[in-house]
Amino acid sequence: MKIRTILRFHNGERLAMITAKWWERIHRWATRWLVLLSTPFSPTSDPPMNFLSDLHPKSKFQAIMRWLFSCFLLFGFAAVTHGGERPNILWFVVDDMSADFSCYGETLIETPHVDRLAGGGTKFTRAFVTAPVCSSSRSAMITGCYQTTIGAHHHRSGRGKHRIQLPEGVEPLPALLQRAGYYTCIGSGIPGLDHRGLASKVDRKGKTDYNFDWDAAIYDSHDWAGRAEGQPFFMQVQLHGGKLRGQGEASYTVIERQARERFGEIVDPDKVALPPHYPDDAVMRRDWATYLDSVRLTDWHVGEVMARLEKDGLLENTLVIFMTDHGISHARGKQFLYDEGAHIPFVVRGPGIAAGKVREDLIEHIDMAAITLTAAGLELPEWMQGRDVFAEDYAPRETAFAARDRCGEAADRIRSVRTATHLYLRNFHPERPHLMPNEYKDSKAIIRRLRELHAAGALPELSERLLFSPVRPAEELYAWTEDRWQTVNLAGDPTQAEILTKLSATLDRWMKETQDAGDESLTVYNLEMADELAVIKAGTARHETFPKNAEIYRQWMREGK
Ligand SMILES: [Ca+2]
Fold first, then answer.
1. CA of 6 to the centre of ligand 1 (A)
2. Any idea which fold 88-131+172-360 has?
């Protein structure tokens, strides 16, 4: 076990040195004994070369014992190096889900499979995405770079006529692993099941959603089963997660049926504890209950994949990383940089990873790329901004950064920096409201209900202020570890002025150093809106709302708002 750990984690010179030393030793022993002992059995050997026959019985016994010992050492070494071969790497990437698992403190449901994963590995309690929306988060994840550095920060950008190219030299992770001999795959992790955990006749590749031009050939398959014998694999299990609960009534019914079939009962909406900034309302409760059912169904799927790895004898030589692409899709979750949108579960299990360990240092989701490359025995490219948080010389992050940019037609720009105690946010367009027009979000039952309650003047003060204020503060500051949902903005508090100034400067420095590409021009916005509208089905409500909303943003841009 010790040697395996060394072989896995000491790359470069040190690994070469250790390996060479062992090989030299083994080679010396093996040559000495095997050459000597093969001699008597050689058909061309002349007597008295059969030295065993000339030996004293006691010496003969010792020679045989030494021979057996040598064989044992050789086989042993082969087994050790085999065990130390490049591990398989398996990612669970779950859509739209916060860390609402039992091992992260959720008490209303049980999530035995993710809990087991955490128990057998290292659980990070302070992991954050650098982008709180699918495509920007996934573009960052797959390159190990800040989405703002590589220009992939606007949600679903670069899909149509306006294509985004990655900066010179930057490549998606599967391309690097494939070139190093890995079998690269992306799918549901269980042949015959889709990303929703439902039976499927056709196995398809899983979700990618990258905002840049990429070559589909970086993925060999939907599943690791097709790899060559002895070939290590890199598998992404892409799960529908929080998206299982859908946008409203019709999809709630589907997930409730699925939960009843799987677990015998559904989460009781009456027992749900909503965050304080959401009104206590039947629609909100039902939605949150179905969300928790989506967590349970995700946990079940994780269990199935882990059982398959174990059954196939792959568990011990597979590095497993579990995370979500951002937090729950809700009014203040997905698309926003509060914990509700940016905090994610992050669990790593596998060879060389401490079991049952909990780490409280800050990590960013782009670190997953660096952890993966190191585990595969590859050097980290210069351009990669994620870090191998398991490296011996790793100095824990003092800060974690995140950015929100245009989401669909909703053009906005928010940046944040977080320390172990504070979360600082900067709104670059404070004149725009929190719940700005957004076809995607506005078609959700929860947002429609919030707008209804707002129109009827029936919202509690906190919901009204945090969700419907027509303008936002230019800066926000939260003592996030004490203020779980970040509802108390300390930005105007004179006692916090020093920390605010410091974090503001840290954010400026980060934006400069990482070459934050910032807002889109109106010209690019128009190109992207045309591209996006082209893929929306004509005649639908979406097709009508989307361009109407886009016109509001154009007007705001023209007004400098
Ligand atoms: Ca997502």
1. 36
2. Alkaline Phosphatase, subunit A (3.40.720)
